[in-house]
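tool_call: predict_structure(chain=1)
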Amino acid sequence: MSDRRDEAVVVRAAGALDLDSAPVLRKELHHIEGSPEVRVVIVDLEAVTFCDSIGMSELVLALHRGEAQGRRFMLAGVPAALTRLLAVTALDRAFDIHPTLDDALRAATAS
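tool_result:
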């Protein structure tokens, strides 16, 4: 579910990001957060088909934990429905969002 790419660790989410799957994402993100050498976390959402409030909460909590640890937290490949949800909730201003994983990786190495 995650792999190291240059300056970043990429976490790939797929399918529904909801009550059933959010604990899997949380576990993976906690594992990464325990690695002080990781400076950038990118969550690739390209394959996510649905995200409810539980999934959104998990992303927000991960963003806050990353900020507290001085770690950059990015989203990549955000599907249209989730993009709308982020815009409606104004969370699109809180997250560092990139259209594709490659764009996020370029931004991670540029900083």
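agent: The radius of gyration is 13 Å. Proceeding to next step.
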